[in-house]
Amino acid sequence: MAEAEIDPLYDYPPAFLADILSSVKTIAMVGASGDKTKFSYGVLRVLHETGYEMLPVNPNPKLMEIRGIPVYRSLEDIPHPIDMVDVFRPKEELYGIAEQAIAVGAKVLWGQIGVYDDRAAQLAEDAGLKVVMDRCPKIELFRPFWKPRLDLGL
What we know:
The protein is α/β, with parallel strands linked by helices.
């Protein structure tokens, strides 16, 4: 999604996003995929290589690990604190995932591009979570480096 196409409702201040991405350490990715052609796999890979502890969540019992990282069946199965829940599921599932994120004590609920639900956001914010919707942490992580260089010759 191009910068100009971002819905103003989900246009977060850069400092808000930077604060989240610099403060979280563990990211549970709900909807993580072991398929290297899926967007969630690429995001998990980049975030993991950047230094985040990734916790893939996928209910498929045949998917045991992604990139050598154990896969959990649900957020409740993760045995240690979760800083951020990154959601790669249809937006209709975000409210239920918000309830689960609250239940496990997550600090941030992040809906990927196309994943947004104002009711879920309100629920999470009322419980004290920071909320980002319709954005990708991988993109936001590298956005500060995308500044145009208008002084360069052609």
